[in-house]
């Protein structure tokens, strides 16, 4: 079993502020965590249990019995109160303390005291799923272990800290096994980043013009694991913009064509193609195993799903789109040529609030998939929107928007830009101008205005979608 943790940057900062102080004493905090369980992991044989931060609860100084340089003991009433909070939704608890002297492993005192603490958790809340203990050192490094119901511990294999910046922590991070092909990129970004990229699992939803461009860029950037999801096959009218597609590929699944193109690069990328809707069970499970997802679909109901997934599972979605609006003349003149890159994650406004998803269109699309007869009936009665005519598409613009999206991702990992992260960027090609509108969550939005779904993880129904 692989145990991993995702912390929002906001929660990580709260932990650091409480635990890392000038006085150099040990303190304690808890993280209430949602759970995501991956039974059929697409990348390897191992199951993954992923812990997702929902809330930080600090133990105030007056509840500390001993707080020294090498030791902390505290009243367990606060632990019981957090267990009570976790009980009804089967949340996990992470107990976090600091090692002010920088010792980055669990001490013999920790080994001695933790089993009793977690025994209390299993006795109080029942269940067989693990809880966590974590150590933070003054440099902000985190290590952790999961305690199972038999009070055996396993080290966390991966920790993600995600927000305006993405930080990944894992054992042997300084071993530097990097592929020679990335040497020139290493000169720009250093060894650790190249190795981090090789560890990452990145999903691409939609493998058309922007999706195929994103896939090629991510593979050559050195992303180690790429998931491709798209139901469609290559058509002759795709050849003007689908990276990797050749005329002999017509009628072949887009995901298979792109996967082969990446494999032939010889960069040791593991590619998993899924030729299905994003709402299929196979695709949903695969998406849960990603560290980051790129949204490259025009499909509104697919967008609705990844829009929720970002907040429920703390997996950043970098969503993109392009619209070309022309006049009715021949030749047409360009009225509007807009690209968009939107980042979805707790703290960012969602696609519904940004007006990107057309809810009527989304309903029509899922109706058409699930009840084709009902869809035709309603279409005849003009209750649903019919399909739109093929929209104009030009490779230079779709590829540029994919590049803008991937560069947003690189900035968040590497920090090359002095102006910071951009959650919502509109590129007006016809005016040669970028706009970066501020977040505008609607107060009634359950996804991005309310924290109750953030880090919620697994629940029935999936993503609370009926
Ligand atoms: Zn300790
Ligand atoms: Zn919203």
Q: How would you summarize the topology of this molecule?
A:
Layout: E1 2-8, H1 9-19, E2 28-38, E3 48-58, E4 64-67, E5 72-74, H2 77-87, E6 92-98, H3 108-125, E7 131-136, E8 142-147, E9 153-155, E10 158-162, E11 166-169, H4 183-189, H5 191-199, E12 201-205, H6 209-221, E13 225-229, H7 254-263, E14 270-274, H8 281-288, E15 292-295, H9 300-312, E16 317-326, E17 334-344, H10 359-370, H11 372-380, H12 395-414, E18 424-428, E19 433-435
Parallel strand pairs: 1-3, 1-10, 6-7, 12-13, 12-15, 13-14, 15-16
Antiparallel strand pairs: 2-3, 2-6, 4-5, 7-8, 8-9, 10-11, 16-17, 17-18, 18-19
This protein binds zinc ion (2 copies).
Give a brief rundown of this model:
The protein has 466 residues and is of the alpha/beta class.
Structure description:
This protein has 466 residues and is α/β, with parallel strands linked by helices. The protein has 2 domains: 2-162, 3-Layer(aba) Sandwich (Cytidine Deaminase, domain 2); 180-458, NAD(P)-binding Rossmann-like Domain (Rossmann fold), CATH 3.40.50.720. It contains 12 helices and 19 strands. The chain has helices at residues 9-19, 77-87, 108-125, 183-189, 191-199, 209-221, 254-263, 281-288, 300-312, 359-370, 372-380, 395-414; strands at residues 2-8, 28-38, 48-58, 64-67, 72-74, 92-98, 131-136, 142-147, 153-155, 158-162, 166-169, 201-205, 225-229, 270-274, 292-295, 317-326, 334-344, 424-428, 433-435. The strands form 3 sheets. The chain has a 9-stranded mixed β-sheet with strand order 9-8-7-6-2-3-1-10-11. Strands 14-13-12-15-16-17-18-19 form an 8-stranded mixed β-sheet, with helices on both faces. Helix 7 (254-263) links the parallel strand 13 (225-229) and strand 14. The structure holds zinc ion (ZN) (2 copies). One zinc ion (ZN) binds next to loops.
